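Self-study notes.
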Amino acid sequence: MSEEKALSFLQLIRRSQRGKLKVYLGYGPGVGKTYQMLLEGQRLKQEGVDVVVGLVETHGRAETAKLIEGLEVVPRKQILYRGILLEEMDLDAMLALHPEVALVDELAHTNVPGSENAKRYQDVQDLLAAGIHVITTLNIQHLESLYDTVEQLVGVKVHERLPDSILAEADEIVNVDLAPEDLQQRLREGKIYTRERVSTALDNFFKRTNLNELRELAFRELASQIDLKRRSTPEEEHGTAPDQVMVCLSSRGPNSAGLLRYGSRLAGRLNRNWYAVYVQRPSESPTAIDASTQRYLGETLTLANTLGAIVFTYKGEDIVDTILHFAREYRVGHIVIGRPGPLPWWRRLLGRKTVVEQLILKAHGLTVVVMDPKAEPKGTGINRQRPAINEAA
């Protein structure tokens, strides 16, 4: 037992000496991961941090290349492979230079045979082990566990993959999100691929349905990682009172934007995290809802992400139970939801209740703020329709 404890303490020591890993996660090429990574690199440099570019792929994008200006760039290592001279990150040079922060693009990249490591994520692990903090980028389809899912949903076999455990070890994950329509527009403008590749890309990987599926995978993965880290945090670090904020979304909510803006302001006043949660019923799958509803939902999730919400999507029939389960799991104290339309009289005769009415009856100890979708918020940004504060029994 004492040997096990000694080994555990040694692991703690090594962990404390290890660099921190930050991942900019996206659902496809062109959403802006590399751009955001370089922006952060520039901000850190302005704060006096020693930042070095280990390797960045601009893919010919002028606005991305411009962000490298002023940053120290380590020359790439040239490797001769089958008569062709190829370039990779010079790991030895990076370790010798030992900057505070290294910017390393495309975490799932496969290195040229003859490199120090077979995969770039292994290079990153070496940098972290040396105490160098790393900021990197990753597309969701490169996770090993999603290989079959991505092939089934999108029809693409992803050859460059990395273990899920690499992402799980990240100290911070940032979801770089962009509405699928905007991503397609960037593609048409030649900002992702060359003009001659645009038409083929739009007919294949960049189809709207594919992008929506990949985007949902990214949202789910981020939510899963947050949940994993929350569960691994000691209970005493969670605090005592549940005071996070949760905004409930629907595919056809008439004022989802108002709900999100109110949730953002409320979370800001409480200085707490906030979540945007969409429960997808079986009748609302991407193949079942019309294009306008799908577009509206996509715009709503984009706004939620822009306003700083952590976006969760669930599939289920019982919306109320799903909402309350989430609220208790994530220590939510305030639930923000839109007021539904009136139930038909015959449903009332059968004793049916709206989702909001059921929620208020069951939300013991939680504050339920019901916002009138027909009224634009004024003042504090809310029109309260009998907010329910139910004390836990």
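Second protein, same conventions, sequence then structure:
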Amino acid sequence: MDEQHEEKLRLGVIGSGWIADEMIHGAVSTGCFTVTAVYSRTLQRAQEFAEKHREPQQPVPRCFTDLEEMAVSPDVDAVYIASPNVCHVPQTRLFLQNGKHVLCEKPLAARGQDVIELYRLAEEKGRIYMEAIMMMSLPWLEELRWAVGKIGPVSLAKFDYCQYSSKYDGFLAGKNPNIFNPAMETGALMDLGIYTVYPAVWLFGEPQGITASANFLPGGADGSTAALLQYPDKLVVLTCSKTGQGECGSEIVGEKGTLRIPSVSTLTDMTLCLRGEEKTVLSGKAEKYRLMGYEAEQFARFIRQGPDKTYKQHRKTACQAALLLQQIRRTAGIRFACDGEEQ
């Protein structure tokens, strides 16, 4: 990821939290991008964030507090959107309409139809639209598919992401952080559960049936959610929680063995356990910024080379995942304002 390009893509960043810090670190480390603009709701915060990410021999990124002004800026080729979930759809639409490529944090939208329509808009404008979800950009992703072939036929898969939220203590103390606020279109399923949905649809496609239930916190956000996906020959169990720390990880069980996946979001430390054979470790570890750098590098390749077979697979999986998330929400009773009378 250290290949240097003669002309770097000019990246604008929307959001100033820790995830944006990691993405900037990762994107700049690829040599594909230089950060030329940042947006925050206050000028002071934008200026502090811009100065923090000043690159050597480069001017301080331009600071914006007006998204429409940023969207028409000639200093921006592409944007990375790391704002609250509820902002993803209107912000993506604005920048696509103004000819910018968009890398948007997960989830792309609460409603699957919005994701489909935004991909159509991106195609009309000749621009790249991509979800920033690590799994799809990892160089060891195909190791997952290969390993599933080795253990098959698969009868059961369990994808889990339970992580005690750093904001939960504050929530218990009476605060109302965005991550536990349904008005922000979030909660355990939309924040962590999406990482369990992606491998399910990428490996096995759309299920024939869904059963789901959620545990709701005061205020209406789901603190934990579980879903059972039914396929003709297998069951897939999805579990996620922001109120407790899981330790068992995920696994896919086949007739010939089991694939253990400690981290379903990064696929690190995957271990193939075939009956009667020594265990084989298929992937190692990597720092967060490097994992996000793979996303940025792939985003840059799509921009430079156009929508290839891999991009089309990204688009298909993103749309399937968004539609499945919406179905799980409907079944579990997780509602957002954008649903209207749909659920």
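Instructor comment on the second fold: The first strand starts at residue 9 and ends at 14.
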